[in-house]
Amino acid sequence: MFHLLEMPNLLLLPFFPMLPIFTSAIFNGQQQHPMADPCYDEHGSPRRCVPEFVNAAFNKEVQVSSTCGRPASRNCDATDPKKSHPPTYLTDLNTAGNMTCWRSETFPRHSTQNATLTLSLGKKFEVTYVSLQFCSPRPESVAIYKSMDYGKNWVPYQFYSTQCRRQYGKPNRSTPCTLDGRPSAQDLDNSPVLQDWLTATDVRVVFSRPHLGNKDTEATDESPGFYYSVGEFQVGGRCKCNGHASRCGKDKEGRLVCDCKHNTEGPECDRCKPFHYDRPWQRATAREANECMACTCNLHARRCRFNMELYKLSGRKSGGVCLNCRHNTAGRHCHYCKEGFYRDTSRAITDRRACKACDCHPVGAAGKTCNQTTGQCPCKDGVTGLTCNRCAKGYQQSSSPIAPCIKIPAVVPTPALTSTEEPADCEQYCKPPKGNYKINLKKYCKKDFVVQVNVLEMEMVGSWAKFTVNILSVYKCKDDRVKRGDNLLWIHIKDLSCKCPKILLSRRYLVMGSSEGPGERPGLTADKNSVVIQWRDAWTRRLRKLQRREKKGKCLKP
Predict the structure, then answer these.
(1) In this structure, what CATH number is given to the domain that contains residue 82?
(2) Which residues belong to any copy of the NTR domain (predicted)?
(3) Distance between CA atoms of 557 and 442, rounded to whole angstroms?
(4) What is the Cα–Cα distance from 147 to 229, expressed in whole angstroms?
(5) From edge to edge, which strands make up the β-sheet containing 449-461?
(6) Containing domain of residue 511, as a range?
(7) Ranked by mean pLDDT, which of 70-79, 140-149, 192-201, 524-533 comes out on top?
(8) Which 3 state secondary structure label does DSSP give 320?
């Protein structure tokens, strides 16, 4: 227990020395430097800050167990303002010439009845002292209790009595008024136990037995009774903000809360704001502000969580883990592209379009996942390209989705092409197409079939050359028997000798003709009037367009 300061009718009960910390005005809404924030230094770096030291009891309502004036007596009448002594006088503004006093009812001389004062502070405060200015002789015993949960549970704060063992069951000993020389004197910031000891939401004072001195032994049942009277009840302290706020104010619901800084929140700035979980919340100290740090998510996440294991592994620097990464990103910091996407190095990682879809070809690629750095899709044998969309050199397209590109077999020239004995009348017989051949609707509509073929082999049958071809695409056909797959193409030996058409094995051609095979032979026929030219991929789009126009009835023959 503390020594009681020997001042007339004044009981000052100090708990902890006031520390010189950066402060600002709180309840009057004014700061000493309106443009400066005490929670940050002149360079904008965070530092510890605390609200102004105040009398937390001022103008607060005090619940008392007893008040005089009901019924009225000669010295106290609750109905007469001049003679009333209500509990509001405990925390009002007093001056030396205008002391107002609360007064309890009068108790019999040997009564054991106590008087209790209960003060609710409205939020957690770090209490430095409790001061009582008596208007009557001081009680023989005073007990102070505190609550840290708004009156749900009470614990003893201090006992003061000349009869400690008899009154409270405690040994008679004096309590120092300062922390000087004590092991915990300079360790408030690092001592949760000491911090809790100073913290209170409510304070209760219990008066037991009047201080009668020698008159106590001389008193009889006919002796006058006693009462307790207090003119001023003060609780000195600071609004508890854990070093993260320089002022307290009322919120929209009228509750007293800290004006939190350092990315903290809560009534006591006792937790980090959402998305500021890169390191754990800590109370600010004189050495370190312990500001809550935002998670590093590269602008791709709105939520994160704290992971203590990662925090320890990083040397206590970073423990944030991003949640629900957006914009096709993944990873603890949303710092790489998720499966099925790759990094666009021309954009910053914080860009919404930093990750591009792999777009692997459904037939040419062996999977949908590409290299997340280069974007290269895994290609099947003989397939190449970033998205595996074309055959590699030395390979040609097939009709198989399993092996879309196959090796080109060795070129075997046809006898017609190697023969130097061309008919003498070839120039009058036909004219092979030269240069770029343009395909238009008129030419398309004149033909009975338009197909893309791959020439596989050839054999001579009488005066006809029979080519085995693989039809890769059908763009027009009057006969439903002409479908994709292996088929026959018949060309007369005279047309072949005059290079009308000119054709090689293991090549792809566009074939546009107007008749079927000779006689009863199945397949297609090409002659000097047919179009047989080496295939170009650029024709695909044009031919599909002509095909759609034909279906709409645009092909009207004269």
Answers:
(1) 2.60.120.260
(2) 426-555
(3) 9
(4) 24
(5) 515-516, 524-526, 485-492, 464-477, 449-461, 508-513, 531-534
(6) 441-551
(7) 140-149
(8) strand
